[in-house]
Automatic annotation (TrEMBL):
This is Protein-L-isoaspartate O-methyltransferase. It comes from the Bacteria. CDD domains: AdoMet_MTases (cd02440). It comes from Gemmobacter denitrificans. The keyword Transcription regulation does not apply. Keywords: Cytoplasm, Methyltransferase, S-adenosyl-L-methionine, Transferase. One of its GO terms (biological process) is methylation. The gene is pcm. The active site is at residue 69. GO terms for molecular function: protein-L-isoaspartate (D-aspartate) O-methyltransferase activity. Catalyzes the methyl esterification of L-isoaspartyl residues in peptides and proteins that result from spontaneous decomposition of normal L-aspartyl and L-asparaginyl residues. It plays a role in the repair and/or degradation of damaged proteins. It is found in: Cytoplasm. Its EC number is 2.1.1.77. It is an enzyme of class 2 (transferase). Belongs to the methyltransferase superfamily. L-isoaspartyl/D-aspartyl protein methyltransferase family.
Amino acid sequence: MTTGAPDQPDDPAERKMRFLFALRSRGITDSRVLTAMERVDRGQFVRGIFADRAYEDMPLPISCGQTISQPSVVGLMTQALNVQPRDVVLEVGTGSGYQAAILSLLARRVYTIDRHRRLVREAVALFQDLSLANITAVARDGSFGWPEQAPFDRIIVTAAAEDAPTPLLQQLKPGGIMVLPVGQSDHVQSLIKVTRTETGFDYEELRPVRFVPLVEGLAVE
Ligand code: SAH
């Protein structure tokens, strides 16, 4: 006869504990990042047949042939960005809106851009449902940044370019940090952290990653 509580894989509290444990074991130690990731339910950003895998540490398909990043990669990028409470953050690649939702709990304001109007529309609806009032989302080509709102304290790009786009470097404040994957889209890319100094830019390579490509122009839907 067995004693004690049976294993309940679908118990939300258990699930959350396992989710946070997986993040910690992959190097996410910043308590503000962990708290934000505990508060934003990834299950609300994944739809359809993959919804029941939302708490696993894997990227998953979303609309428009795009992907919601792996939670541990979201955590590592957010941690590397070192967002401060008064920061204004630009995200390029809204996708599901999951990364923007996490940033919105850490920053003063988040501007997020996607080239797919449909993804922006769906993400905005979620931000409203979740009362995340400090996020502004727009459909346009994010490789040009958002000059009207620049400069930014922090910039995060969640699609891979061959190099850091010049307009984004220009829209970063001195002392500001940008985290982005660089490299060819069909290869393993490098996640890099760029810090703008008074005189130039410092580059630090963080780890290999795989992201969908940064594509030019607005998409058809
Ligand atoms: N951060 C997202 C995942 C993004 S997937 C999340 O948390 O779910 C990468 C996204 O980048 C895709 O949605 C894709 O449409 C978008 N993207 C690719 N090229 C772009 C560009 N030039 N401008 C804006 N968005 C772009």
